[in-house]
């Protein structure tokens, strides 16, 4: 049973809400069935009339979510992975040993650490940049891959995707953007010149803290993309069909979830900007944020639902605030319907660039007034 491709002429909100609707089911299902087969029958002549051989090469359970993601990002093809890290690793493994990679200093910490280890093993040259000027300077020399994350964990620096794409291409590099935080609701990196978009689909795309998944969307189906697909099929880091099904279900509500959470995050950021117990609010939607002008240009309709608060009084005060919160739950991860708080420096550990007075907030879809009241009562205790 195949699933309907997304209809490109429809608005992204409509495509997402329709999800992956099966068209050739005898039952005319409104939601896709759970497609579990791992292997597919050959005809007597040795061919595969169903077009599938073995689900590690690509399960029919991926068709719906991959088609929808391809449309939402405006790409030529999409591929699901067993996690965001598996998706990112597939990009790195598609590079040839000796390649030069340029990546941001501020990015998802575990991926940055993995890149450093991977680069040593794969004999990659890896250079980090702190801002747009350093990125431009590093791209005066040839490179093979530029990695971006914008807004970037956990301080929400903004990188100008269009400028980075120009500079990357002039240096002979592909541009890959981890767009987990803005999601296609707010940013479409391929339209800004990126070559590949990466998602930890564990976060907003699924949105319910019950699936670990990753995704890549490419602008072109070229040799590099084929190498990525080979890494997925033969490296074997593939998503299970039930996880793909849950992801497809989560993506149907992507737009209202992300818009509600982002509106709440913006209200929280404005409320605590200038608060006596908060030394700094880090949120690209605030005009005082150093990346605000670029964010306002490349993010459409909102600035995302992630923000960080630097707590006056330092590390101990920040930990006390986290401990006192009752609506925000203390847990890692982000992008779900429930709000989460994390003392990020503790999680990142030795060598972190994260200030020790910083609390990272993943804003969910609860009532904004409850979230503000929760933060107020927690701050009142320090
Ligand atoms: N990219 C970002 C921005 C993330 O926040 C994360 C996870 O926290 C990842 C990538 C890795 O994704 P996963 O946990 O799905 O492997």
UniProtKB/TrEMBL annotation:
Pfam families: Cys_Met_Meta_PP (PF01053). Its cofactor is pyridoxal 5'-phosphate. PROSITE patterns: CYS_MET_METAB_PP. It comes from the Bacteria. Keywords: Pyridoxal phosphate. Coiled coil: none annotated. Belongs to the trans-sulfuration enzymes family. This is Cystathionine gamma-synthase. It comes from Azospira oryzae. The lineage of its organism: Bacteria, Pseudomonadati, Pseudomonadota, Betaproteobacteria, Rhodocyclales.
């Amino acid at each position: 049973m195949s699933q309907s491709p997304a209809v490109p002429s429809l608005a992204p909100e409509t495509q997402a809400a329709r999800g992956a609707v099966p068209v050739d089911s005898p039952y005319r299902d409104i939601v896709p069935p759970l497609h579990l087969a791992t292997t597919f029958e050959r005809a007597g002549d040795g061919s595969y009339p169903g077009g599938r051989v073995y689900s590690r090469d690509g399960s029919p359970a991926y068709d719906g979510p991959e088609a929808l993601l391809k449309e939402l990002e405006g790409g030529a093809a999409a591929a699901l992975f067993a996690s965001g890290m598996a998706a990112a690793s597939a990009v790195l493994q598609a590079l040839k040993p000796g390649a030069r990679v340029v990546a941001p200093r501020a990015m998802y910490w575990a991926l940055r650490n993995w890149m450093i280890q991977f680069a040593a093993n794969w004999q990659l040259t890896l250079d980090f940049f702190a801002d747009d000027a350093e990125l431009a300077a590093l791209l005066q020399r040839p490179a093979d891959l530029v990695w971006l994350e914008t807004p970037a964990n956990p301080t929400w620096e903004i990188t100008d995707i269009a400028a980075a794409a120009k500079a990357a291409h002039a240096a002979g590099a592909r541009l890959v953007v981890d767009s987990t935080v803005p999601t296609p609701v707010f940013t479409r990196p391929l339209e800004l010149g990126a070559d590949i978009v990466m998602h930890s689909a564990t976060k907003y795309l699924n949105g319910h803290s019950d699936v670990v998944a990753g995704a890549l969307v490419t602008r072109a189906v070229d040799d590099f993309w084929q190498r990525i697909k080979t890494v997925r099929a033969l490296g074997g880091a593939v998503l299970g069909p039930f996880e793909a099904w849950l992801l497809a279900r989560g993506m149907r509500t992507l737009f209202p979830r992300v818009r509600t959470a982002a509106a709440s995050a913006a209200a929280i950021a404005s409320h605590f900007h200038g608060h006596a117990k908060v030394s700094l609010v880090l949120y690209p939607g605030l005009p005082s944020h150093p990346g605000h002008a670029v964010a306002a240009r490349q993010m459409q309709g909102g600035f995302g639902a992630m923000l960080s608060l630097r707590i006056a009084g330092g590390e101990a005060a920040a930990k006390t605030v986290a401990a006192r919160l009752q609506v925000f739950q203390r847990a890692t991860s982000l992008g779900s319907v429930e709000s989460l708080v994390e003392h990020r420096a503790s999680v990142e550990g030795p060598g972190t660039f994260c200030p020790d007075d910083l609390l990272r907030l993943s804003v969910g879809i609860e009532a904004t007034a409850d979230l503000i009241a929760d933060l107020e009562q927690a701050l009142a205790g320090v």
